[in-house]
């Protein structure tokens, strides 16, 4: 079964061409990151609001590093990452409240239930516990795992954990959603579900960036930025 959510096609230079470079979105300008060696080298790219951008590249090409700088987890060695004119690096390594991540390593708390893992993302932002729990259940349902809400995360399969991580990232309704390989453990049907949800987030105006190795995911995105050895090659 092919993905039921084909995008308009991710053309060459999709991350750059044909758009106002100053439009709403996440703007990275001449970003370089050095940690022993140069991991990102003079990267300038725009992730526009309302679009899903695929970030592809071989393993080790710098995708996670780029997402981390884009979302304010890491300070660039030089250059800037700005969300609508505001630097995402706030000096602490905490992301802006407008930014949500789906992390490649999930970052779930193993002894908490799936619902609790999703709920805490909202509670941390000040949502009342009962409302957060209700929204968490709805978010789990978006990814087809409503029945797993009470299960401890350490009892779940890799793919189930990945869907909990997706629910936790998506539940916030953030202005910026940065998803690092969110479909790597999923079968084709569940990959289609995640792609549809990514498109929903963009449709409500969010900046959505998805790091991926999967050509089917790239094809389903609106735009495509490719990295190789820390440089943008497409
Ligand atoms: N804190 C760090 N210090 C030194 N090197 C690092 C650090 N973090 C990542 N690296 C290296 O930087 C390079 C880019 O890593 P990164 O995780 O960004 O790549 P990636 O494209 O996301 O890879 P993958 O597809 O395997 O997840 C790799 O060679 C990695 O070993």
Descriptive terms for the model:
ATP binding; ATP-binding cassette domain-containing protein; 4-stranded antiparallel β-sheet; 6 helices; ABC_transporter-like_ATP-bd; binds adenosine-5'-triphosphate; single chain; alpha/beta; 6-stranded mixed β-sheet; disordered N terminus; 234 residues
Give the low-confidence spans.
1-20
Number of separate strands: 10
* Biggest sheet layout: 6 strands, mixed
| Distance between the ends | 28 Å
Taking all Cα atoms into account, the compactness measure Rg is 17 Å
Query: Per the principal axes of the C-alpha atoms, what is the gross shape?
Result: globular
Mean pLDDT: 90
Strand ordering within the main sheet:
6-7-8-3-9-10
Helix content: 25-40%
Beta-strand portion reads: 25-35%
Q: Give the count of helical stretches.
A: 6
Structural class: alpha/beta
Provide the succession of SSEs.
EEEHEEEHHHEHEHEE
The molecules bound to the chains, other than polymers, are: adenosine-5'-triphosphate
Topology, element by element:
Blueprint: E1 25-35, E2 37-48, E3 52-56, H1 63-70, E4 78-83, E5 86-87, E6 99-102, H2 114-123, H3 129-142, H4 158-170, E7 176-180, H5 188-203, E8 207-212, H6 215-220, E9 223-228, E10 231-232
Parallel strand pairs: 3-8, 3-9, 6-7, 7-8
Antiparallel strand pairs: 1-2, 1-4, 4-5, 9-10
Bound molecules: adenosine-5'-triphosphate.
